[in-house]
Amino acid sequence: MFLERGNSVEAPAAILLENLSKVYDLPPGSAGAAQAVAADNLNLRIAEREVFGLVGPNGAGKTTTLKMICGLLVPTAGRIVVNGVDVERDPEAAQGGIGYLADFFSLYDDLKVWEYLDYFAHAYKMAPETIAGRITDVLRLMGLEGKRGAFIGALSRGMKQRLGIGRAIIHDPPVLVLDEPAVGLDPKGRIEFRQLVHELNGRGKTVLITSHLLHDLEEMCTSIAIIEKGRLLRSGRLEQILGEGVRERRVRIMVASPGFPLVEWLSRREGVTGVTGAAPIGAQFSFAGGPSELASLVKALVVAGASVYAVEPVGETLEKVVMGLSRGEVT
Amino acid sequence: MAAQAFVLVLGGGLLSLLAIQREKEMNTFDFQRVTRLRPLELAFGKLFGAPVLMYFIVLCLMPAALVGAVVGHARPTFVVAAYVVVVLGAISIHALALLLSLLLERGVAVTGGVLFLIVLWLNPLVAAKFWLDLGSLSPFLASDLSTQMTWAVMPRPPGTTIYMSGGYGMTDVLFGWPVHHAAVVVVLYASFAAWFLLAVVRNIKRDPAGYEIFTPAQALGFLLFINLIFIGFFRWSRWSASEAQADLLGLNTSLCFVLGVALLRNRDRVRRLYARGRLSSGWLAAAWPAPYLGAGTLVVGLVPVAILQVIGKLDGEWDLGVALFRVALFSAWLLRDILYLQWMNLRRGGRLRVGLLYLAVFYICAGIVFGTLNLFGTPRGLAFTAVLMPPAVFSLRLGAWAETWDAWLVALCAQILIAGIFGSLQRRTLADLSAPGRLPIAAAGAA
């Protein structure tokens, strides 16, 4: 079912946060305020089949928000709906549709890999005749087929992380909640993890993920929300967030004409500001015009005698956007 | 049999004490909480899963025990009964240990649990046989049970101690009727296991900040259940009416106190209640948990008075007015202390533990000072001590009442006044908690 809003058609929400707040006390003797706000009137709508990144500094309230979504913590105020089920009213029904991975966790080292998955498959009340097949599927998806009979204690950190995700998806939940899942993974492990998230998303899962590795999130997520001190600073599609606030496009031009005064030439042009040199022979600048004006600029540059071999837009990174918002909106 | 009881009760109890604590430390407990397991299923899994090794050891020891029973010509029905007692007793202890494991920090849970298990082990030796016509409630009595030769129950002459004195079988006296002790412990174990399990089930999947052992109604039910046991097995024949009332109030003191502590609200809970508009900002909120605790203490205080009036075993010391005054002072005293603890628990940082410590220090110091001044030894001195230490009312005699009733009334008024002060402090703390800017924006209006 799709909801219509105006002329646009919206995918149904997998996760809905309405006026969500969580206030807790700071220990006596703490400097400053007596209480902290982990979630401050958060409103968030995560559509089905999204890979949604929740971004923020330490203590922003990410883990608390995730735990409230999973029904592990009770909000001070507000409502959470997952797959159409109110988490506070019917936590077991909501939890049946969620796969959760905590930021720091242990596994049962004395169990074998398949036993661990089998235990949780039963805990999620899967039909007994489907469990063996599902364990095989999950082990294949996680790349752990060869470790089926191995003791968990003998697995590497990356394998344990994958097994943790395997546990979270053993019951084939439509929503995955992953708290800092890439912590401790080596670069290869992170690449594999990103591929895994893409694959899970391709299978129709909604993935809510937190991470400090913003580059990873930028590669994985379709939408993000940035929170700080429990407050929602921005949320939306990734490309929209990255494009927001960019009134002037940033452009890089590379020429193959040694001796051509590129920086000076650009600085004299209308609509061009903030020109900086770029190695080996090139420049970066902000341009106020549209595509046709930029085309005219490039044409004029060629006419002026520069051999232009590259013209490319310079995009904002998630890191920059987060840093900018964080500095500007919360003190 | 003793070895099996030891392994199952103590070994299983220790494993149950660690069951949830260990999962919390490993950060694996949340993974179980988010599964589709219902709280009852999760609780049963822990109850029988944590001590499973001990059940296995008991099974391994069983052949040797059965050989011993045959060689010793033990009656098969008693051997079976002994196993029922051991297993049911162990289940009730394990359920309690699981509850401690869920609610308390590791160190506190383990220390308290181990002390409890030791007392339980020693229980046949130190059983309180003075007040109740009830034998040992320790599962270690199974060894005695397995050597019994008759199921017959025999009323014992008044004043004799329980079955361990020999010659009367394992007989308890319930509301004046002789009943076999094995049947009593089986029923009590099953009942206690059910109460403890109810508390575990209510909380095992909850947010730890929202733990609530029982609902107020369930807590009242538990208090009344324990009092049913007290009253049913009480040795009415051994004590005078006034002594019986004082003893029953004394037996109820710690029970009512624990009930009061179980009802306390913490800051997180109060915030949620305000945010959902379920808590008013008046004196009623500031008096929590006085309504439930007051009802509980009055019921457990007044029922024995009614029973004593009905059975008519009244002596020269008995006076209905004094009896009612004792109940009133008992209730006011507990309300005073619980309101103090409620206020402490609502202060920043939740200072319940500090509050309990202060309370213990206060009673010890007051006791030492009053004892040194020999105030407990004179009727007016005793009444004076009741202002700060109301348990003195348990020693109040009719003759002393006639001389010092005015001082006792002052003591009662003092309790009400002090309780009011703590209620007022609680009200201020609640006002601070619900002040604009303290609650979530959406909730502030609702509050």
UniProtKB/TrEMBL annotation, chain A:
Keywords: ATP-binding, Nucleotide-binding, Transport. It holds the Pfam family ABC_tran. Gene3D superfamilies: P-loop containing nucleotide triphosphate hydrolases. It comes from the Bacteria. GO terms for molecular function: ATP binding; ATP hydrolysis activity. InterPro entries: AAA+_ATPase, ABC_transporter-like_ATP-bd, P-loop_NTPase. Residues 15-254 form the ABC transporter domain. Belongs to the ABC transporter superfamily. This is ABC transporter ATP-binding protein. It comes from Candidatus Segetimicrobium genomatis. The lineage of its organism: Bacteria, Bacillati, Candidatus Sysuimicrobiota, Candidatus Sysuimicrobiia, Candidatus Sysuimicrobiales.
Automatic annotation (TrEMBL), chain B:
The chain crosses the membrane at residues 43-71, 78-102, 108-127, 174-201, 213-236, 248-264, 285-311, 323-343, 355-376, 407-425. Keywords: Membrane, Transmembrane, Transmembrane helix. It comes from the Bacteria. Coiled coil: none annotated. This is Uncharacterized protein.
